[in-house]
């Protein structure tokens, strides 16, 4: 399953960013997924939930933000976002498109529980 591999990726990134002993403190993981990545958010959320629990991040919730797919037309050089699954340039009708963003997956933000105390 596609989403399983992505969930694994996210966990790998989170593990590199957060020391292991803080894993149970992770509350929210905000990610950005391009629409072009073909990810089904519900499915990803489910896979992640199972894997996060196995990884000791029992309270980690995934916040999925979908970003539109941006393309550049190689024929006329203009950039635009794809609104539908129509891979044609809206300016010149060319089909020679390059996806410039919207197929990536990135971890934007990791939020840990606030133990308080040390602030200010
Ligand atoms: Zn064009």
Structure description:
There is one protein chain. This protein is of the alpha+beta class. It has one domain: hypothetical protein PF0899 fold (2-Layer Sandwich), CATH 3.30.2320. The protein is built from two helices and six strands. The strands form two sheets. A three-stranded mixed β-sheet has the order 2-1-6, with helices on one face. A three-stranded antiparallel β-sheet has the order 4-3-5, with no helix packed on it. The mean pLDDT is 88. The site of zinc ion has 8 residues, from loops. Zinc ion (ZN) is lined by residues 73, 75-76, 78, 89, 91-92, 94.
What are the main properties of this structure?
three-stranded mixed β-sheet, 120 residues, binds zinc ion, hypothetical protein PF0899 fold, 6 strands, elongated, alpha+beta, three-stranded antiparallel β-sheet
Secondary structure: elements and pairs:
Blueprint: H1 2-17, E1 26-34, H2 41-54, E2 61-67, E3 69-73, E4 79-82, E5 97-101, E6 105-112
Parallel strand pairs: 1-2
Antiparallel strand pairs: 1-6, 3-4, 3-5
Helix pairs in contact: 1-2
The structure holds zinc ion (ZN).
In short:
The chain has 120 residues and is α+β, with helices and mostly antiparallel strands. The chain has one domain (2-16, 25-112): hypothetical protein PF0899 fold (2-Layer Sandwich).
CATH-assigned fold name: hypothetical protein PF0899 fold
Task: Provide the CATH architecture.
Answer: 2-Layer Sandwich
Low-confidence stretches: none
**Largest sheet descriptor:** 3 strands, mixed
Number of strand elements: 6
Beta-sheet strand percentage? 25-35%
Secondary-structure class: alpha+beta
Bound small-molecule species: zinc ion
User: Helical percent range?
Assistant: 25-40%
Number of domains: 1
Shape: elongated
Distance between the termini: 46 Å
Series of secondary-structure elements, N-terminal to C-terminal: HEHEEEEE
Count the DSSP helices: 2
- Assign the CATH class: Alpha Beta
Task: Output the strand order for the largest sheet.
Answer: 2-1-6
């Amino acid at each position: 399953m596609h989403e399983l591999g992505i969930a694994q990726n996210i966990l790998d990134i989170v593990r590199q960013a957060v020391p292991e002993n803080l894993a149970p403190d992770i509350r929210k993981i905000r990610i950005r997924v391009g629409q072009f990545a073909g990810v089904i958010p519900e499915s990803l959320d489910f896979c992640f939930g199972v894997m996060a629990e196995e990884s000791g991040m029992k309270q980690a919730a995934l916040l999925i933000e979908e970003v539109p797919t941006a393309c550049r037309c190689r024929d006329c050089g203009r950039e635009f976002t794809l609104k539908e699954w129509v891979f044609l340039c809206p300016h010149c009708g060319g089909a020679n498109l390059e996806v410039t963003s919207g197929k990536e997956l990135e971890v934007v933000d990791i939020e840990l529980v606030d133990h308080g105390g040390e602030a200010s």
